[in-house]
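Write out this protein's structure.
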Amino acid sequence: MRRLRACLGAAAAVGLAAAGTTALVAGSASGATSALSNRWYAAAPYLMPLDNDPPDPAAIMDATGLKAFQLAFVLAPNGGGCSPTWGGTAAVSSDTAVQSVVNTIRAKGGDVSVSIGGYGGTKLGQVCSDAAATAAAYQQVITKYGLHAIDFDLEEPEYENTAAIKNEIGAAKILQQNNPGLYVSVTTAGTADGTGWFGKQMLLEAKAQGFTPNNFSIMPFDGGFNGAASQTGALTNFNQILQSTFGWDQATAYAHEGFSGMNGRSDTGEFFTQTDFQTVLDYATSHNMDRFTFWSLNRDRQCTPADNGGRTSGTCSSVAQSSWDFAKYSVKFAGATPPSSTPTPTPTPTPPGTGCKQAWSSTAIYTAGNEVSYNNHNWKAKWWTQNETPVASDWGVWQDEGAC
C-alpha cells in the first residue's frame, strides 16, 4: 500500500474521459497485454511487490500454475496530496520497480490487478476533493500499468469516513464506465453476521449511486473466526445482506459475492490451514461465487525456523506448509489444475542464542536496513525509527527475520 502532486478536479476528470481512457490504456507504455479471463482476476492472491520480503512471482507461477496477482497497495502520499503512490511513499508516476514485477508476470503469460486502500495508511478517497478527482488519480494507475482489473479494499480507517466512502464508490463507478471491461472488486471487513455496520453503509452507498461491481468481497478473519465453518457461515449471512440491500435473489447475490481470506495465523491469532481453504473453496465453487482470494503470497511459505503458532508474520504463515500451498487453491478456483504438491519439509530450528544481532535499544535511532535482536528474534528496520518496540506487523517499522 505509498510524490506529491495537486489533486485533479472534476473538470480534469471529465477531460480525461472525453479523451478516451480506453485508448489510453491500450496505448500505455506499460506494455499492456490482452486480458485474462475474469476468473483469473477473481482468483488473484495479494502480493506486496515492494515490502514484506517480496517473493519472485515467476517462481510462484512455475510452481503453481498461477497467472494473476493482486498487487497491493495504492495510497495517497504520506505528505499529502491527491496522487497515487505505492504504500504512501513511491509515486506511481515515476515507478519502475513495480513495473518490473508487472513485466515479469506478463512475460510468462500472466497479468496483474492493483488493489487500492487496505488496512491503515491514508487513502485517496480521504484526501481527494470529490469522486471525479479520486477517479482521475486511480486512472493514472490503470493507464500506467495497462490494467484490466482493480480492487477497492475499503476498510479501516477509511470505511468509517462517510465522505471518503462516497468518493471511493463514486470513483469506482466512473472507472467502470470509462474503462469498458474493467474487472472491479470491492473488498471490506467481515463479521460473523457477514459484515458490520460500516460495511453495510458502504453497500447502501453503492446502491444509492447505482454502482454494481463484479463482486463485493468480505474478509472473514480478525473478527473472532475459528476455521472454515465460521467463514462459510459469514459468507452465507453476507449473501443475505446482499439480497436485502440490492433486491437480488440468492443466486444473483452469490454471483456478486467474494471471499478474501488470510492464510495461516491471522493478526488476532486465528488459524486457517490448507484444509480450511479447501472447505471454503468448495463452498465458493458450489455456490457459484465470483471471487476467491487471500492475503497474502508474501506469507505463503513456512516460517524459518518453524514458529508454527507463536506469532503472526508478514513474510510467512506460521503453519506447517510447503511454499505456495495456499496459492494452489486460487489456481483451482480459476479452473486450472496446479502441479502435484511436494511433501512439506521439516525445518531445522536455529539454536536459541546463536546468530543474534546487537540488542534493540529504545534510545537508539535506526534507519532502513539496520538489524537488531529482541525477544530471541532478529529484526530489520524498514525505515527511520526510534523507541518503537520490534513486533511483527504488515504496517509496522520492523520486519521479523526469525529466531536467533
